[in-house]
Amino acid sequence: GSAEALNRAGQFLNNAVIYTNRAFSNYDGLQTQLRKRLSRNIQGQASYTWSHTIDNSTGIFNGLGEQRGSRGGPINPLDINSDRGNSSLDVRHLFSADAIIDMPFGRGQRFLSQGGALSKIYEGIQMNFIVYARSGYPYSVRCDNCSGANRPSLIGDPFANVPAGRLLNPAAFTTNPALLNSVTNAAGNTIRFGNLGRNTFRGPVIWTTDMSIFKNTSITERLNFQLGIEFFNIFNRANYTVPENNFNNGDFGSIRFNAQPGRVVQYRAKFIF
Known about the structure:
- Helix content is about 0%, strand content about 35%.
- It is elongated and about 90 Å long.
- Strand 12 and strand 13 (about 225-230) form a beta hairpin.
- The model has no long low-confidence stretch (mean pLDDT about 90).
- The protein is mainly beta.
- The termini are far apart.
- The protein contains one helix and 14 strands, in the order E-E-E-E-H-E-E-E-E-E-E-E-E-E-E.
- The strands form four sheets. Strands 1, 2, 3, 4, 5, 12, 13 and 14 form an eight-stranded antiparallel β-sheet that branches. A two-stranded antiparallel ribbon has the order 6-11.
């Protein structure tokens, strides 16, 4: 804030880092869950959370796509609440569902229950599904070395006349010093910052489906062998976190980068005892 950081000679320090516990956060949420207990070889559940997290800091580390002041401080060093907005931890919508399906083959099941080699081959097969979806990650528009400002000012509709392949219109932002806010500290240094809030925008929705198939074979009463294959992001959906958010970058607003992993296939063999 307005604290004066002086050395022993009474001169102002060029910069100083101050740690304080003045930050706050607020979370409100609605949580729902629907559960199916095991019956007819199927069990599973679906959960949904609708929530909003607001804070003015997430600590000394910036969140994904977040932009604050020097070393994680507020954009306006004289007012920590100038960064009050969507938290980097804000997940407005979160949905997850899972199911475990024991295939009805083998001893004690509806099909191939008579025993024998065929029953042994098909019994113990299990299919598993996990579906996960969430709102996109919040992010700020940042500006590196733009008239000393960390964030630009908003002067138009960022979603109008958006160039192809981008999520935001660069013409909606400016770093013109005449259109930036500024404060001057006790040392006479002027700090500039735009009127654009923190974590104002949100990246695309994240949606992924995982699937696995296991074959459980009983070797003895206490020893089982499990052979399986697991698919993470089985549909190979392209999930992106946030676009390029540096206003000074030629790729500003582009969503070609920052992709989460594509399909991953994993094989497994286990002895369970």
